[in-house]
């Protein structure tokens, strides 16, 4: 019998028909691990291998299926696939055509949530440096939420109870469903760009991850990140976390908590104002008392009680000076007269003695044999003698004349003719000093009174509340920081703290076999043992 040969195409068509007739291959559910994952840039189709420990099967996922995924498939990811098996004609191989893909062990939304969370964290959208401070005393608060839900009622009730001075503006939005994402983005943009808000609250009640998914969308996170108005995210309840919570400037565990974080408690503010007012008044009164005591001490000084003491002392000094001056002038006149008389006597005695001595010398020279012409010598000596007498007489008369002029000058001096004038000059100076002291003391008292009046009329006295604004802002900022750092809040979000002998364990390598571990949850503690 002669064999019948068929073409490769015919064989491939036959195999394809066989596979299509098998209903079990038209709808298969396969578990495996992704490898060699690639996505075509132009078409968007995805190609990969699905494998287990023994076998590998090629798989393809068209763009219409891949575009609906909430997460991005990666190599090594264990997945669950629903699809069908068909032949790829060009290569004559069978492959798995994917209609639905999900991660084995986690839902698609959980995977997408974690992937977007990691991506935005790497971009820095969660960093504290980008967080804006929530105003402590807002005048206008906006709320983006459903107008029919319990969230808006809780927020309005809380804000009106705590801070009735605040205006609340509702920006109604869908918070669930396919249209919710675009609606939320639009309302946040409208509130931020067209209304002068102090704070914006984005809120909704609790629900499943599907119900809250609109707040996990990238476009919502981007709108929140670029919003100029500080945003408080209050989506779900304590255990519910969304991407919006991480991007927002502040996360509130519930809508009610968002209202509490958005505004202060008016009674607490009033109490703080009263306390600061009392402290300010006490400080001012203390300052007034201290200044009053200083003023009384100044007024009690002898300078102000007996100002004439300064004048009297200076008058005594003037009297003493006058007496000393008169006594000194009399002594000076007496000494000058005595010196003048003594000088006159010395001049007369000296001239007589010189004449006597020269006569003796002349008589001796006349009998001497040394000189050939004694008359000439005599004449020379006589001329010198008479010249000397003339000089002595002229010098003495001139000296006497100068001393007499000096004496006359003393007698005619101002201090002898009008000694009272000196006293009057000194007295005038002391009167001026007295007047300056009195004027200075009055000015000092006036300045102190003006300082006290200025202190009473100052802004800090008339409006002590103004001191509080900056202090309250700083206080609220520190409270917020402490709240963020509260380890109990971290535990409430689903984390635990493990301790061995009271010491916190952060790494598994720090544990040993048979160690007794105390695990702290938000609602209690559990003891366990390492095996």
Automatic annotation (TrEMBL):
- Ranges for domain Exonuclease VII large subunit C-terminal come to 125-348
Any coiled-coil regions, as ranges:
266-293
For this UniProt record, the keywords arranged alphabetically read as follows: Coiled coil, Cytoplasm, Exonuclease, Hydrolase, Nuclease
**Listed GO MF terms:** exodeoxyribonuclease VII activity; nucleic acid binding
Q: What superkingdom does the record give?
A: Archaea
Name the Gene Ontology biological process terms. DNA catabolic process
Q: Where is the OB-fold nucleic acid binding domain?
A: 6-101
GO cellular component labels: exodeoxyribonuclease VII complex
Q: Which InterPro entries match?
A: Exonuc_VII_L, Exonuc_VII_lsu_C, OB-fold_nuc-bd_dom
Question: What protein name applies here?
Answer: Exodeoxyribonuclease VII large subunit
């Amino acid at each position: 019998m002669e064999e019948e040969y068929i073409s490769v195409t015919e064989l491939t068509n036959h195999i394809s028909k066989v596979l299509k007739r098998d209903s079990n291959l038209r709808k298969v559910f396969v578990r495996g691990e992704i490898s060699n994952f690639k996505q075509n840039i132009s078409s968007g189709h995805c190609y990969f291998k699905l494998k287990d420990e023994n076998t590998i099967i090629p798989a393809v996922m068209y763009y219409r299926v891949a575009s609906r995924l909430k997460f991005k498939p990666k190599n090594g990811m264990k997945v669950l696939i629903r699809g069908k098996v068909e032949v790829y004609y060009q290569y004559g191989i069978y492959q798995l055509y994917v209609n639905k893909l999900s991660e084995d062990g986690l839902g698609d939304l959980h995977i997408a949530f974690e992937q977007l969370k990691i991506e935005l964290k790497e971009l820095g959208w969660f960093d504290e440096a980008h967080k804006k401070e929530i105003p402590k005393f807002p005048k206008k608060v906006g709320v983006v939420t459903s107008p029919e839900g319990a969230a808006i009622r809780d927020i309005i009730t809380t804000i009106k109870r705590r801070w009735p001075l605040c205006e609340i503006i509702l920006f109604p939005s869908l918070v669930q469903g396919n249209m919710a994402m675009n609606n939320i983005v639009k309302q946040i943009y409208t509130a931020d760009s067209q209304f002068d808000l102090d704070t914006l609250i984005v809120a909704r009640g609790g629900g499943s991850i599907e119900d809250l998914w609109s707040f996990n969308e990238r476009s919502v996170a981007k709108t929140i990140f670029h919003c100029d108005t500080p945003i408080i995210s209050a989506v779900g309840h304590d255990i519910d976390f969304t991407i919006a919570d991480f991007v927002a400037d502040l996360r509130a565990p519930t809508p009610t908590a968002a209202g509490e974080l958005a505004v202060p408690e008016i009674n607490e503010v009033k109490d703080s104002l009263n306390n600061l007012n009392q402290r300010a008044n006490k400080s001012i009164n203390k300052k007034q008392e201290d200044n009053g005591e200083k003023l009384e001490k100044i007024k009690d000084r002898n300078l102000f009680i007996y100002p004439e003491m300064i004048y009297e002392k200076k008058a005594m000094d003037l009297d003493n000076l006058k007496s000393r001056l008169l006594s000194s002038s009399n002594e000076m006149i007496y000494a000058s007269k005595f010196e003048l008389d003594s000088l006159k006597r010395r001049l007369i005695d000296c001239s007589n003695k010189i004449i006597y001595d020269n006569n003796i010398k002349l008589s001796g020279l006349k009998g001497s044999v040394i000189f050939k012409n004694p008359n000439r010598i005599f004449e020379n000596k006589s001329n010198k003698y008479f010249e000397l007498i003339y000089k002595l007489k002229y010098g003495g008369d001139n000296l006497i004349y100068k001393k007499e002029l000096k004496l006359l000058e003393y007698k005619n001096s101002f201090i002898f003719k009008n000694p009272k004038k000196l006293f009057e000059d000194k007295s005038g100076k002391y009167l001026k000093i007295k007047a300056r002291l009195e004027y200075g003391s009055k000015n000092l008292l006036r300045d102190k009174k003006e300082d006290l009046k200025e202190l009473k009329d100052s802004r800090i006295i008339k409006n002590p509340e103004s001191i509080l604004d900056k202090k309250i802002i700083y206080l609220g900022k520190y409270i917020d920081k402490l709240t963020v750092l509260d380890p109990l809040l971290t535990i409430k979000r689903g984390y635990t703290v493990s301790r061995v002998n009271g010491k916190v364990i952060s790494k598994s390598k720090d544990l040993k076999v048979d160690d007794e571990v105390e695990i702290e949850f938000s609602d209690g503690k559990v003891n366990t043992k390492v095996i």
